[in-house]
Protein: Flavodoxin family protein
Amino acid sequence: MASVVIAYFSGFGHTARFAEAVRDGAASVADTEVHLVAVDTVTEEQWLLLDSADAVIFGSPTYLGDVAAKFKGFMEQSSRRWKSQTWADKLAAGFVNSGAKSGDKLHALQTLSLFAAQHSMLWVSLGLLPGWNASTASEFDLNRLGVWLGAAAQSNSDEGPEAAHPADLATCEHLGRRVAQQATHRAAVPVPVRG
Ligand SMILES: Cc1cc2nc3c(=O)[nH]c(=O)nc-3n(C[C@H](O)[C@H](O)[C@H](O)COP(=O)(O)O)c2cc1C
Structure:
């Protein structure tokens, strides 16, 4: 059994919707236990879930071109784990959401991947070719925003979380599934000694 934790922040519910899609994708993989953790209200019990996870998928909205301050607060709260490298060699991945199609959210995703690297985690990319990039393509293609580092979503500024774009939900589900598949593969083989 592999354990996947989705550690996310959402100010107004949009990113929470994508976190649920990541959760659904991960939960579709046999022998996977999945937990959603809202990092702004993280409890001691949830820190222990993070410590024992095989994979952690980080998610944040893009606020002023980077992760939200409350996600950054969680990053800083993890510094005791950073010091002891408690999360080393776990799988990590990320998803981001923003109001604009680009909205500089790649920068937020880079922050998530750097955060994972500081914890010596192993980053899992999205694993999809870009969609919506040909005359015959459609905005309903998987990975419609054309990102490789993780899953990217866009939420219209005048609509609520219920209007989440189906292609972005499917892309987030794909990421959750991919990470859970990798985590179950790794859980089935002995982990090499860290060096
Ligand atoms: C303080 C703040 C800063 C934002 N900065 C950006 C930004 O840099 N780029 C962008 O495209 N959208 C930006 N947005 C829009 C959010 O990314 C967008 O509304 C997102 O769906 C919010 O997700 P949430 O409901 O999970 O908080 C910003 C929103 C807020 C509140």
Q: What stands out?
A: Residues 10-15, 61-65, 97-100, 103-104, 155, 157 surround flavin mononucleotide (CB under 6 Å). The domain at 2-187 is CATH 3.40.50.360 (Rossmann fold). The beta strands are 2-8, 32-38, 55-63, 66-67, 91-98, 122-123, 151-154.
